[in-house]
Amino acid sequence: MSYGMKVSKAGYNVLTTGNVNLSFNSDLATHSIFNVASASIEGSGDPYVDVTHSLGFVPKVWVFLLQNDGEDYISRVPIDLGWSSGSLDYYIDDTKVRIEAEDTSEDYTFKVVIFTRSPNI
Amino acid sequence: MAKGIKVTKSGKEVTTSTSLDDFYIHSSYPLLKVHSSGSFSTGITGLQTIDHDLGYIPFILVFAQYVGADGYDPYITDELYQCDWLQEGATVTFFGVAQAYDDRVEIEIGNTNAARTGVVDGIYYIFKDEVAA
Description:
The complex is a heterodimer. Helices cover about 0% and strands about 45% of the residues of chain A. Chain A is mainly β. Chain A starts with 5 loop residues before the first strand and ends in a 6-residue tail after the last strand. The mean pLDDT of chain A is about 90. Chain B is elongated and about 65 Å long. At the A-B interface, strand 3, strand 5, strand 6, strand 7 and strand 10 of A face strand 2, strand 5, strand 7 and strand 8 of B.
């Protein structure tokens, strides 16, 4: 006998409904947030910034660029900001997330979402 | 004594697993939660606004068809690509922009080619989780 846990949406029978109507199924990977970190690149400094983690594996990560056009907003990284500003990108290893800027004269502020999940589901 | 809930993936022991990758629920780490999701259709180079009532900037994911150009004729791909993209050619700029504000998500898909007609389809996810300022 195998063990597990399922939680269905309201109105659906957990014993019979499909995965699309389950809020949780212990057979399917979830995405838990390990940490949301702030990071910045200053135009006068290194063209990259590292956000370290202690997970011991390469985690899934989202990176967002904080911007302001009169209001604060976010855009996803990687992003190409055009001829004059270049692009922003990142890579992940088992100890850090490194965000790199093509244009080294600009200041950038980021939010880095590190999940507890590796690509090896 | 601290209380919480842990559920491991199949084959992993909940009381001895040390890698967070082994857990599908670990109450010390919040699950990503969807606030709203759906599809949208917007004219090429039109602005699509999706309101939310969160009062803070949430995480988002947006995917949309890509508007390319064959000479001066725009074409729209069948497949969806994740925003953002910006590709500047010699005469045409191709873009797919998704920006999350504290009350809305703004999406703009298209290119700067003069011949602009057609409709672009896409999908979006707005999450409950906050991009803390």
